[in-house]
Design goal:
The complex is a heterodimer. Chain A is an alpha+beta fold. In chain A, the strands form 4 sheets. In chain A, strands 7, 8, 9, 10, 11 and 14 form a 6-stranded antiparallel sheet that branches. In chain A, strands 4-3-5-6-15 form a 5-stranded mixed sheet. In chain A, a hairpin with a 2-residue loop joins strand 5 (535-549) and strand 6. Chain A is elongated, with a radius of gyration of 38 Å. Chain A starts with a helix and ends in a 7-residue tail after the last strand. Chain B is mainly α. Chain B has helices at residues 2-25, 27-58, 87-91, 99-109, 149-160, 170-178, 201-212, 236-243, 256-265, 289-299, 316-324, 330-334, 339-347, 352-358. Classes of the chains: A alpha+beta, B mainly alpha.
């Protein structure tokens, strides 16, 4: 109830209130509000405390608010409050477990973004990749980061296991943690491999085809497992969808569960192991005590981790911006099997093992055994000591296993144990299937076609470069037109024979990269021992360049040779001339107008097979073990052997007997050619 | 140590942001380059596919063979260059700017019959057992062919790129195309039947029945041939005269010629017992009277002489004009036929199109 007194004292009240407002410490009030907000967000840490953390000062309050934060904050409660100093040595852990989690997070973020632009169907997948690369801002960046992160994660997880093994950190209470770690290694490998298929390019398609085909070799359930993985007999829409779902859903889920279990054990039960030297080495008590001191998560470790995050991210970004580029080959094609299918590097050891023998043993039994042994390492190794010098056997086995793995990895590469036909081998150097290669990387203008068209409608302007050719061919008047026929005689500008073979446009710059390539090809064709061994006479080689369109050229490179035919890849065959006659449908001999039987044109030959038996390869040559026993095959394929004097009586279709002589036999030469044909567009950018 | 780490971390963060900014700034250029690269690599793949799949018939590098050339000499190209350059697309009824879609369409679906069989037979009719094979097989996987959709697009990109051979100048391009030696059009068919001028209505009727309207695909006009889906028309003139007197007949015609005209224009009015309704298309309702008259003349084997046949009715417009002025039946009279015929002409069912045009002369 307002009374007159109230009114009377109003003035002084207002004045008092005004004074109070004027003199109130608003700064302090604002600081209080700010502090309240900061504490609300930062799990009870005050602004002052945060500052102290960043400056490395001691806690500003008691009890230690940093420990309280670890109780209040969900994210921080996952972390341990402290580690012992020894456990945090960089050279002890190399932060490999941390990096594994870092890459997992990178993969999740970039993967989610990539998923926005990707549909897992054979019709769309590859097109989506091209779209990501050419139409999505930062699309290539995200894809490269995802790929780099995947490689990094596999590498880091592997190294983490190696580190834990060599520091003997799997012992006693950490045995179960090791077990979950091996599961995580497996999950990481499969996770990476399942992502391999998604771009739906040749590389992906064939690597995964071969990968899943190994499941086929598994006893009893092999076919079923293979079908389950591929969704059909061949990988197609079903298989792609399965791998996609494995990659984005099931495997990440399994990984998250096992990472949680794995990390729970580390954070809450046994922490990171101390280095063996601290635990059982001959350290002075002070040093030992120093290394057993607690290092708090906040501030030291958390700042260290933030630093690692930004440095690692920076390095990845730089790698992606400069040199690292995720590969993308041609669209997956069931019809075209690549020359070499190479597994991803972390499975090369498996590919190497497969070269050793049976698929069952080396593809299924041994790998399974390896992982079983890995799982139970803590239970096999009963040695309580951790110092390397007290566990020489374990260290020895570890080193040996690592070396074996590296050797197997080398054996998995195509350079080991795979014999490609020599001509294909030579051409694949110049025109590889998996990357542009030297010919493609030449500037477009360096591929000289003929300068003048043959006639008004000739837009092709074909020019043939004879790289290896029969002696004297370049002197033949038929090939006098140097604009259309170019002969490569070496690469010596002072040699008149060399310049003679060149048209003016090439002679201007005889040392051009293109010419160097042609000369390199010449050298390979004329000196490849395996090719020379196969070929009868000199192998020939030619490169042609022609225009298809104003901005498109055909470049073909071919190697041709006459090859001695090997029957059943073992026996040498010769042909022996033999007259035979044309038969009518009823089986009787056809008579010509002149009443004589019609001889077959061209004259028929009989295939004489020399039954050879080869010994082991010595210096690239297989010795013939016994004297060849030449024979002809009768209608049923049974051998009819020649007599000792080299003759054999044969009956022709007329029923007349004649004698054929082995001396007339000529080697059966099969004209062979290996050809690579490339369409090269001016703007295809391979040379950039 | 903490300070060094904080500094290092901050520097790395800033540097990473800068690098990403630099990537972002150059991203448009990179994307444009990548897009161009993918397009031309598509042309390269198209060239290789052409070499493997198409060159056997269309010649190496698309110069033509037993099938037409598809290179710059083909009349396919020209796109935006100018009129007359892409004559083949015009001939096939496609927009000249739709070369890509046209090529994709033809490659995917193939061609049942060649459009220029006297020059390019394709695979049809080239030997025993090839009378009914497709002139060009369908190549799309969806049509059981060998090519994926992206490969068909590669081929189309390759074919399109021949355009670059054409001069960009419109006049030069036209001159180039006119000089093309292989230019053979559908209309150049030496065996093609020309439309008779109409002075002989039976000849015109025969042309319409057999070659133009395709009546003969359903109706036989050979006597004694059993009817299949549609009635045999060999004796329709006498049948029609009887039919209009038949009590079962539901139409409005009262003469043989009216009956036939009604059957052509409004086939649903009366369907002979035993034949299904709705088989005969209704599209003939717009046929000009002269054509209907010619058909009647042909089917009556000359027994029916259409109105004014002697004065060579070739243009339907002439008749329409005459009929348009319905009141001036004098025209009919001047044409020298009887008044009864004139009446018949007005009462006969007329196509709607010419009638409607009468109101707005």
């Amino acid at each position: 109830m307002l009374g007159s007194n109230t009114l009377r004292s109003l003035r002084s009240n207002v004045a008092g209130e005004w004074k109070r407002i004027r003199t109130y410490d608003w700064l302090k009030w604002a600081a209080g509000v700010g502090d309240y907000c900061v504490r609300g967000i930062m799990a009870g840490l005050s602004g002052k405390e945060l500052r102290a953390i960043l400056r490395g000062d001691v806690p500003t309050e008691r009890p230690n608010p940093r420990y309280r934060a670890q109780v209040k904050s969900f994210m921080l409660h996952l972390r341990p409050k402290y580690y012992q100093r020894g456990s945090t040595w960089f050279t002890h852990t190399w932060r490999l477990g941390w990096f594994a989690v870092y890459f997992f997070v990178v993969e999740t973020i970039t993967g989610l973004i990539l998923m926005l632009f990707y549909a897992p169907t054979p019709e769309r997948a590859y097109g989506d990749m091209l779209n990501i690369l050419s139409n999505v801002p930062y699309g290539k960046f995200m894809r490269d980061m995802h790929r780099l992160g995947a490689e990094g994660m596999v590498a880091v997880v592997l190294l983490h296991m190696v580190r834990v093994y060599f520091t003997a950190s799997y012992k006693k209470e950490r045995a179960f943690t090791w077990l979950t770690g091996v599961v995580l290694l497996l999950v990481t490998l499969v996770l990476s491999f399942s992502g391999y298929l998604l771009p739906w390019d040749q590389l992906a398609y064939w690597a995964v085809t071969i990968g899943t085909s190994m499941a086929d070799a598994a006893p009893l359930v092999g076919t079923q497992v293979n079908l389950l993985l591929r969704g059909a007999v061949d990988i197609w829409a079903g298989g792609l969808l399965r791998f996609y779902l494995l990659h984005i859903f099931l495997l990440p889920l399994v990984a998250i569960v096992f990472i949680s279990v794995h990390y729970y054990k580390v954070a809450r039960e046994h922490s990171i192991s101390l280095p063996a030297v601290v635990e059982e080495g001959d350290m002075s008590p002070e040093e030992k005590r120093h290394n057993e001191e607690r290092i708090d998560l906040i501030p030291n470790l958390i700042i260290h981790e933030l630093m690692l995050t930004s440095v690692a991210t920076f390095l990845m970004v730089v790698a992606v911006a400069t040199f690292f580029s995720a590969p993308l080959e041609q669209h997956a094609d069931q019809q075209i099997t690549p020359l070499h299918t190479e597994a991803p590097w972390y499975f090369l050891w498996l590919q190497g093992m497969l070269k050793l023998g049976s698929k069952q043993l080396f593809g299924i039994v041994l790998p399974t055994l390896i992982f079983v042994v890995l799982f139970v390492v803590p239970w096999i190794d009963r040695n309580p000591h951790r110092l390397a010098k007290r566990r020489p056997v374990a260290i020895g086995i570890g080193v040996l296993a690592s070396v074996i793995m590296l050797v197997l990895t080398y054996m998995g590469t195509p350079s080991y144990g795979i014999e490609t036909p020599p001509a294909q081998d030579i051409l694949s150097v110049f025109v590889p299937q998996t990357h542009p290669g030297p010919l493609r990387e030449l500037p477009w203008d360096a591929l000289h076609a003929a300068q003048t068209p043959a006639d008004a409608t000739d837009t092709h302007r074909l020019r043939k470069y004879y790289v290896s050719f029969p002696v004297g061919m370049d002197k033949d008047s038929q090939y006098a037109d140097r604009d259309k026929f170019v002969f490569i005689n070496g690469l010596d500008p002072s040699d008149p024979a060399f310049l003679d073979g060149l048209p003016p446009d090439i002679a201007e710059e005889p040392n051009s990269e293109f010419m160097q390539l042609l000369v390199a090809l010449k050298a390979k064709v004329e000196q490849q021992p395996k090719l020379l061994q196969r070929a009868d006479g000199e192998p020939k080689s030619m490169v042609t360049v022609e225009y298809i369109q104003p901005e498109l050229k055909w470049v073909t490179a071919s190697i041709s040779w006459d090859e001695m035919e090997l029957d059943r890849q073992k026996d040498l065959t010769y042909m022996i001339p033999f007259t035979d006659y044309e038969l009518k449908p009823d089986g009787t001999v056809k008579m010509g107008d002149d009443g004589k039987p019609v001889a077959l044109e061209p004259a028929k030959s009989k295939k004489v097979v020399f039954d050879l038996e080869y010994g082991e390869l010595v210096d690239g040559v297989r010795p013939i073990l016994k004297d060849p026993k030449p024979y002809l095959k009768d209608a049923d394929g049974n051998p009819i052997y020649f007599a000792a004097d080299g003759t054999l009586e044969v009956t022709d279709a007329m029923g007349e007997k004649s004698t054929i002589n082995l001396a007339d036999a000529k080697p059966n030469l099969k004209p062979s050619v290996q050809l690579e044909k490339l369409a090269i567009h001016r703007d295809s950018q391979y040379h950039q | 140590m903490t300070r060094i780490e904080i500094t290092l971390g901050l520097l790395a963060t800033i540097a990473a942001i800068l690098v990403m900014g630099w990537i972002g700034a150059t991203e448009d250029t990179r994307m444009a380059g990548a897009a161009r690269g993918f397009t031309v690599r598509s042309v390269e793949r198209g060239a290789k596919l052409f070499d493997g799949q198409c060159a056997l018939c269309h010649g190496p590098n698309a110069v033509g063979g037993k099938c037409p050339p598809l290179n710059q000499l083909s009349g396919l190209h020209g796109g935006s260059i100018g009129p007359g350059v892409a004559w083949r697309l015009e001939e096939m009824g496609w927009e000249r700017t739709m070369l890509f879609e046209y090529v994709v369409n033809v490659v995917s679906n193939g061609r049942n019959a060649s459009t220029r069989p006297w020059q390019y037979k394709g695979n049809r009719g080239v030997g025993p057992g090839t009378e009914s094979v497709m002139a060009m097989p369908a190549f799309a996987q969806t049509n059981n062919g060998p090519l994926r959709p992206d490969q068909v697009r590669d081929l189309a990109n390759y074919i399109l790129a021949f355009q670059d051979y054409l001069p960009s100048d419109v006049e030069e391009a036209k001159a180039f195309v006119e000089a093309v030696p292989n230019k053979v059009s559908i209309n150049d068919d030496p065996g093609i039947k020309k439309r008779p001028d109409g002075s002989d209505p039976v000849a015109l009727g025969e042309y319409l029945f057999n070659d133009d309207l395709g009546c003969k695909t359903c109706h036989s006009i050979v006597a004694d041939q059993p009817p299949t889906t549609c009635p045999n028309l060999s004796a329709i003139w006498t049948t029609a005269a009887d039919r209009v007197k038949d009590p079962a007949y539901t139409g409005s015609a009262d003469s043989a010629e009216d009956y036939i005209a009604e059957s052509i224009r409004q086939p649903a009015t009366f369907v002979v017992n035993g034949f299904p309704n709705g088989v005969m298309p209704t599209t003939f309702s717009t046929l000009p009277d002269s054509d209907v008259d010619a058909l009647i003349a042909y089917l009556s084997k000359g027994a029916y002489t259409p109105l004014g046949a002697s004065s060579a009715i070739t243009e339907s417009d002439g008749i329409t004009a005459t009929l348009g002025t319905t009141m001036t039946l004098g025209t009919t009279v001047t044409l020298g036929t009887t008044a009864t015929t004139g009446t018949t002409a007005t009462t006969r069912l007329r196509s709607t199109a010419p009638l409607s045009s009468t109101t707005a002369p």
